[in-house]
Amino acid sequence: MPQTRNRFFDDVSKLMTDAAGVAEGARREVETLARSQLERLLSGMDLVSREEFDAVREMAALARADNEKLAARVAALEARLAKDATPN
Questions:
Q1: How many Å apart are CA 44 and CA 46, to the nearest integer?
Q2: pLDDT tens-digit series, residues 31-86
Q3: pTM for the structure as a whole
Q4: Cα separations in angstroms, 84 against 64, 73, 74, 79
Q5: What was the pLDDT predicted at 26?
Q6: Half-sphere exposure (CA, 13 Å, Cβ side) for 25?
Q7: How far apart are CA 33 and CA 77, in angstroms?
């Protein structure tokens, strides 16, 4: 009688292990499908890559710095022009 019980539990154990394997395979399949659908959706949205974003952000920072330098230069030239325009 104990052999029947052990065999029963072995069969149940094997069934549960197989079910877990099937569930894991199904989970991977769903993840793969979801990932491919998301990639297809994102590729159709015309989004920029992280590298492109970082490059444009760097360009904007450099342009801002140049703008500040030019604004200071214009202010200095305007002050010089105003000084030269005042009668002595």
A1: 6
A2: 999 999 998 898 888 888 899 999 999 999 999 999 999 999 999 999 999 998 87
A3: 0.48
A4: 30, 16, 15, 9
A5: 92
A6: 6
A7: 64
Using CA atoms in the order 16, 22, 27, 33, what is the torsion angle rounded to 10 degrees? -170
Task: For residues 22 and 32, give the distance between their C-alpha atoms in angstroms, rounded to a whole number.
Answer: 15
Two structure tokens written together for 35: 């990932």
Q: Is 40 helix (H, G, I), strand (E, B) or coil?
A: helix
Query: Which two three-digit tokens encode residue 14?
Result: 């094997």
- What burial class does residue 83 get, using C-beta atoms within 10 Å of its C-beta: 0-12 exposed, 13-18 middle, 19+ buried? exposed
